[in-house]
Specification:
By secondary structure, this protein is α+β, with helices and mostly antiparallel strands. It has helices at about 35-45, 55-65, 85-90, 105-110, 115-125, 150-165; strands at about 5-15, 15-20, 25-30, 100, 135-140.
Length: about 170
């Protein structure tokens, strides 16, 4: 794995442990992991001498986000997905901090009216939690639905952002 261009770092957050993965081109994943995975990952990372340059930046910006000092991220992304998924993830990045849209509204922003189910499927495959903010997409009726980190985490993220919205 030493020759690999893909590296990762684990970090603890107020909503649980995250694993950040990056290539030489940018972030590839920010995903929720279990405490057991966190301990294993944290131990293996200390054995690596160099980390990808984007990992430190991502960790710093996520720390600032959780402290309420950052409302947007400035990080290069190395996303891999279908054309539709990439468009959906790009549309997610246009949702302002502290605000929400429905899956139908996201589909309209993508000029794909009526494609809310497809949008939901693409959001479900979003590999970069928080930074590509799929937590800001809610059901048509305003209900919190579908989030990889769980609805409790989605609620926490939305309340965190809305409390700091000025």
């Amino acid at each position: 794995m030493e020759n690999s261009k893909i590296q990762s770092v684990a970090m603890m957050t107020p909503i649980g442990p995250l694993l950040i993965t990056a290539s030489d081109r940018g972030l590839q994943k920010v995903e929720f992991i279990s405490g057991r995975e966190f301990a294993k990952e944290e131990k293996s990372i200390t054995l690596q001498k160099k980390k990808a340059r984007y990992l430190k930046k991502a960790k710093k910006q996520l720390d600032e986000y959780f402290l309420g000092k950052r409302k947007s991220f400035r990080l290069p992304l190395d996303l891999m997905g279908t054309d539709f998924q990439l468009k959906a993830w790009k549309a997610l990045q246009t949702i302002p901090y502290g605000q929400t849209v429905s899956y139908g509204e996201q589909a309209q922003r993508m000029h794909k009216k009526g494609a809310q189910r497809a949008v939901g499927g693409a959001n479900n495959k979003n590999p970069i939690s928080i930074i590509v903010p799929c937590h800001r997409v809610i059901g048509k009726s305003g209900d919190l639905v579908g989030y990889g980190g769980g609805l409790k985490v989605k609620k926490w993220l939305l309340e965190h952002e809305q409390a700091l919205q000025n």
